[in-house]
Amino acid sequence: MAVLVVLAAIAASARAAGLDEMSLERWKELREVERYQLQIAEGYYREKKWKVAAAEYEKFLTLYERSEGGPYAQLKWSLCQVHLRNLNTAIKDGFQSVIDYWPDSPDAVAAAYFIGRSYKDIGEPGKAKKAHAELLSKHPKHLVSVYAMVDLIDIANVEQDEKTKVELWKKLTFETERTREANNYCVQASQALAAHQFTNDAFDEGVKALETTYNEEQMPYHLLVYAQGPIANLTAAENTKAQGEKLADQAVAYVRAKLPADLSNEELKKRALQYWFYTADLCAASRRAEKVLETYQQIEQKFGASDEMLGRLAGWHKSIAKWDEARQIYGRFQDKIEGANQIAYSFHQQGQYDQAVAAYQQVLALDPQNPVKWKPSIAWNYRHAHKWPQAIAVYEELIRDDVKEPHRWRWEIAQVHEGAGQWKEAIGVYRQCETQFPQNCQRMAECHRRLKEWNEAILLYNQIIGGAPQQAPWALYQIGMTRHDAEQKELAISALQQVCKRFPKDDWASRAHAFLQSEYKINITLGGATDEGER
Q: At what angle do helices 472-485 and 489-502 cross, to 10 degrees?
């Protein structure tokens, strides 16, 4: 499985880079017969029929070895070998042949990259590093050098080679042209380099790395993003706490230096407020409560106590488990309904469900015109508190309140009964949820199985097969598992075999196949035929 993941990664990288595609200019140089043969091979390649595609590329090479498409066909033949997990063959008989026979072809450069990449993916980092180093030396400005550096960073990460990672990040950040294909890798390198520099007491160097990617207006936000983690990590340990606080102070000073001086413009005022919020977040990351409170006091003095500001301050109090303080701040909201909503939700977050119910009832009293908005939260907290009758009573009120969607709340009542282990009651309500077929039948069948009413469950699964064909593989599998639970061995085997026979390409067939093997020691091929020697 790991090898398949690797192969998928190679293919995705190749397509992203365009390394496995022929340019239109080169395609035009081919004769009609050459294009015809290559199109056949390319069709099979796109269909992922690797053996057939490899044979067609090999046929092209036999017929048109001196063609402009020769090195390209050899490259694609090699990639087919990669997909077929013949990586050593791909390297020695494929990619290397492109380099040896067509050294001046653009495909030779791609082949050189794939040699290093293949060595990396078969677990030979030494050879991969050597191949990529040679590639970087010969083609430092070519796009493949970017991909080679990314591979080398991956290797350095596994080998915990920090020095090499930093060197490569710097090359990608400061020395590499940011073309459309290379840009994302350069951006990621600048971000990783910045985080590294911030962690290692090199604030100015980290800022320089980010400034290669972000403009002046964007910088405060991205400084927050990439400094926040290092600040939090450094201040978490006593021996690096001072360094983390220094980094936070540097970041705060940088952001404050970017504050717009003119606040008469509404847009600039909004930006300034956002920058102040960033400084509060940086102070929070440094675990200095006094700095956070001081910053919010300054924000309130300059901009007033908006609900946005109060919400952020309350959120910070919750993050340090000061729930009562957070609720006091929510009580200052200009939007009293939203403030009350946040107070109620904070009780839910604490797991204090009875208090949450009472608080949501207060919200409802403030906003009686919107029962459908608030009553579900009351019911939800009753459910968390395992107060099933109270939850059901609220949902019954909602059926009357919400005349447009009563089925929505009837379904919730059924879910409450099921969650309470009241299987018969759940079945009775699910039966009324006819608009939610086949989900209602699925849940009823599960409840019947809980009650060990096997035949009733199977009847419902058959209804799903007849009425929702897209769910048939799942339902037939469930029939097999129900028969198994009922200790009806032969019927269980028959149903699971039917899944494999009727839906061989479906994931449920794979599950049925695996269960037949593990539980009943039956090896059946997906498609219905039984392996030799087995039933």
A: 160
Per-residue pLDDT, 1 = 37
Cα(437)–Cα(445) distance, integer angstroms = 12
438 preceded by a cis bond (ω within 30 of 0)? yes
In this structure, what token pair is assigned to residue 412? 């919730």
Burial class (CB in 10 A: 0-12, 13-18, 19+), 126: exposed
Higher pLDDT, 13 or 444: 444
Q: Would you call 153 exposed, middle or buried from its count of C-beta atoms within 10 A (0-12, 13-18, 19+)?
A: buried
Output the average pLDDT for the chain. Answer: 93
Partners of 530 in beta bridges: 524
Residues in the chain: 535
pLDDT, tens digit, for every residue of 180-217? Answer: 999 999 999 999 999 999 999 999 999 999 999 999 99
Q: What structural domains and CATH numbers belong to the chain?
A: 437-535 (1.25.40.10)
Task: Check residues 150 and 526 and name the one with the higher pLDDT.
Answer: 150
For the beta carbon of residue 36, count every other beta carbon within 10 angstroms: 11
